[in-house]
Structures are given as C-alpha cells and as structure tokens.
Design goal:
By secondary structure, the protein is α+β, with helices and mostly antiparallel strands. It contains 7 helices and 6 strands; from the N terminus they run βββααββααβααα.
C-alpha cells in the first residue's frame, strides 16, 4: 500500500472462466471509457493500465484497507441493506485517502447461477434486489462525500432494469420511486 500511498486497494473482479466482470472505476474518464470498450477481455483491460491506476469506487467485497483509512472512513453502513452498499463504502474510502486499483490481482466474483437460463419474472427476489440497488445508488449519490461520476450511471441502471424486467408502466414507476427515495436520502429497508 505504501508503493502508491493508497489507503485502499481493489482488484479486478472476474467470473469463473477468467472473463472480466468488473474493473474498479477509474478517476480518469478516458480510462473508464476504455475499460467499457474492451468488455470482458481481462488481458486487454490489464494492458490499459498495467501498473494500476487511481480508483474512484469499486464493487465487490474484496478490498485491502489500511487501518488509518478505515478509521477515517468508518465501517460499512449498518442502515444500508446489500446491493450498492459496497459502492457507497468504497466512495468513503477513496474520500478518506487515495484509492488504487491493482489490475495484476483478479478475484473470482461469480453471481448466483440461473437455473432456467431465462430472465427472472418481476415477482422474484431478483426484482427486489435490483430495485434496492437502484435506490442505494441514488442514495449514495446524495450522501457520499465524493460521488464522483456515479450519478451518470443512474440512467444506464434504469435501462438495464427495464431490459431485464420489461418496459411497462409498473416498472417505470418502480424506477422513479426508488430513485426518488434514494435522492431524498432514504436508504432501502428489508
């Protein structure tokens, strides 16, 4: 951690086949766009920043955090239920001390396997999880000490929600409700 004077370091997240699932969000806009362009190609993503880069935020539970940064940032919030809480916590860490992404380290972070191969129906736990994520991200945009460019991802998450569960009035209202609650500072409840 001393090498980059970082208070926290995050790895790349890969699936069980070694495909890039998520790279920590760079501070640099141009690098963020370049990561999106390479998709799941881990080698190409690593080649973009072989020695690492300053990180704005990350997803996933895999972080190396030094004690002084933990004490400045505080522990993960107890009032946020899962799905998006990792982004909020990593934003506080990067506000407390410089955060670093380390592409030479990859951690397997597999999502739960689908049993049917079909998108889940709107009345399942997946629908609730995704709704909670939308609210948590909006909540984090207004409560984080340093949301960076996180607000720009809200429209993309809304599109993904509609693509997953269908473009209909009920789902549009759910997005509006979750974003409004989050932007008003209400964390989701179980």
């Amino acid at each position: 951690m001393k090498k980059h004077s970082a208070g926290s370091i995050a790895p790349f997240l890969v699936d069980s086949e070694g495909k890039l699932q998520e790279a920590p969000e760079p501070v640099s806009w141009s690098l963020a766009r370049a990561f999106r362009a390479v998709g799941q190609n881990l080698s190409a993503a690593r080649a973009l920043a072989p020695s690492g880069y300053p990180m704005a935020w990350c997803i996933g539970p895999c972080l190396l955090i030094d004690r002084s940064t933990w004490l400045r940032a505080g522990a993960p919030r107890s009032d946020m239920i899962a799905y998006g809480d990792d982004v909020e916590f990593s934003l506080r860490l990067s506000a407390a001390a410089p955060a670093w992404a380390e592409p030479s380290v990859a951690v397997i972070h597999d999502p739960p396997a689908s049993t049917s191969g079909l998108p889940p129906p709107a009345d399942t736990a997946h629908y609730k999880k995704f709704s909670i994520l939308l609210q948590n991200l909006a909540f984090t945009c207004v409560t984080s000490p340093r949301p960076r460019h996180l607000p720009l991802y809200l429209p993309g998450n809304a599109r993904r929600f509609l693509k997953t569960f269908g473009f209909n009035p009920a789902n549009i209202l759910e997005i509006i409700r979750r974003y409004a609650l989050g932007l008003l500072g209400f964390a989701p409840r179980p």
